[in-house]
Design a protein that fits this description.
mainly alpha, 3 helices, transmembrane, membrane, transmembrane helix
Length: 130
């Protein structure tokens, strides 16, 4: 019976993390829409975009540092089957956090590139040379 519970816990955690990710996404969308900031290039308050990006990088960096610290602590414990199972679970969790960070960072970078192309030399928004 205990072995069955150990198998179910990670599945439940994945579900909880997915629900939390969806809730965070919905909350962010509601906040950005309430601030009339649905597009980075036309945001009513440009500082919101910068603040959101800084918040994203800071939170994800802290999350990865926390995961790495937990993993380091677990590795320093006397090795037994329970500790080894925890280390394996922590490594998977950290890999998933890194993957989320990279995917979201690529989305932000693509948006920055798109905005930069929109305000490039052909848009007429740059200062003209005399």
């Amino acid at each position: 019976m205990a072995a069955e519970q150990k198998v179910r816990v990670p599945e439940q955690r994945h579900r909880q993390e997915l629900i939390l990710d969806i809730a965070i996404f919905i909350a962010n969308q509601m906040i950005f829409r309430s601030l009339d900031c649905t597009n980075a290039s036309t945001c009513a308050i440009p500082a919101v975009v910068t603040a959101a990006r800084v918040f994203f990088v800071a939170c994800n960096t802290l999350l990865l540092v926390a995961f790495s610290g937990q993993l380091k602590t677990a590795r320093s414990l006397p090795q037994n089957p329970a500790v080894l199972q925890d280390i394996e679970a922590m490594q998977k969790r950290r890999k998933k956090a890194v993957l989320k960070f990279v995917i979201l960072l690529m989305i932000h970078a693509a948006e920055l590139h798109y905005v930069a192309c929109q305000i490039g030399p052909r848009s007429g928004l740059r200062k003209s040379r005399r």
